[in-house]
Amino acid sequence: MSARDDSTAAARWRRLVTGRLAELDCLSPRAGSLSGSFWDGGRAERYAKHTRITDAGKDPFLRRLRRVTDASSSAIDVGAGTGRYALALASGVGQVTAVEPSAAMLAVLRSQAEQLQVANVATVQATWEDADVSRADVAFSSFVLALVPHAGPFLEKLDASARRRVLLYLGAFSADAVLDPLWRHFHDVPRAPAPTYLDALAVLRELGIEPTAKVVEIPNDRRFESIADAVEHYRDALLLTDTAAVRRELEELLGAWLLGRKGALRSPLRTAAAAILEWRPRH
Ligand SMILES: C[S@@+](CC[C@H](N)C(=O)[O-])C[C@H]1O[C@@H](n2cnc3c(N)ncnc32)[C@H](O)[C@@H]1O
């Protein structure tokens, strides 16, 4: 774990993110970079399947994005992933630029754009730090910041790239809280803490940005076809080595916790909290 430096909110953010990345590196040394090969080997496709927006009217972030855009707006989706927001927003705006460093994530985004006949989403393969894109009316980023150790420059660029509005979407109730008993059972130590939206708020305030913060509930639509699917998902989320003993033990623990029947097994949690941070750019 990195040395404790909490002298500023940005330093605290950096410590938390690097501690978390070091833990991933140590437990899954072959996992690859979270802005690159981590998403290869089918992970991008699985991500797309499980983050698909099934009811656009119920997705709190999409609802907010639609409120602050209209048919003539341009938008930048930073760390667009498989495009759940870029593609869902496209029909209601003039143009979306999806910035995404992972080739695997972009491949899924482009194939979904083709299937949906979406023609106004331009893609840029780059990290946000390296991307060269023109300003847009709205710049937004969903579930990316917690992967970025140097939050300050990332946020400054987001702020400078928007003419009218910036929106950030982050977890507000860490999935770690749910996984904690399982994590401690298998690893014998608590998980390295991830930064929260409150840490992000503190970093923004240090930059002179005062966003509004709204905590919303995201419906948990994830269903598992079988206990084996659930075991694979939680084994990956818990960064556990793939052995028969681990699978057996997880199956026993999950069997007692998951609800529903084969074909639609689900976690007992119906929703998870997320935070929308929003502000008008400073310039
Ligand atoms: C959890 S996914 C979120 C994807 C999408 N925004 C969503 O909400 O479904 C995180 C994404 O951030 C991307 N990413 C990681 N570091 C990044 C960076 N420095 N700049 C831009 N994107 C980054 C990853 O490649 C990945 O696609």
3D structure, described in words:
There is one protein chain. By secondary structure, the chain is of the alpha/beta class. It has a domain of 194 residues: Rossmann fold (3-Layer(aba) Sandwich). Helix content is 40%, strand content 17%. The protein has a seven-stranded mixed β-sheet with strand order 3-2-1-4-5-7-6. Helix 1 crosses helix 8 and helix 9 packs across helix 10. The two termini are 38 Å apart. The structure holds S-adenosylmethionine.
Task: Put the structure in a nutshell.
Helix content is 40%, strand content 17%.
DSSP strand tally = 7
CATH class of the domain at 9-173 and 191-219: Alpha Beta
CATH superfamily of the domain at 9-173 and 191-219: Vaccinia Virus protein VP39
Overall outline: globular
Helix-strand pattern: HHHEHEHEEHEHHEHHE
Helical percent range? 25-40%
Secondary structure blueprint with pairings:
Layout: H1 9-27, H2 43-51, H3 60-67, E1 74-78, H4 84-90, E2 95-99, H5 103-115, E3 121-124, E4 136-142, H6 151-161, E5 162-171, H7 175-187, H8 197-206, E6 212-219, H9 227-237, H10 244-255, E7 271-279
Parallel strand pairs: 1-2, 1-4, 2-3, 4-5
Antiparallel strand pairs: 5-7, 6-7
Helix pairs in contact: 1-8, 9-10
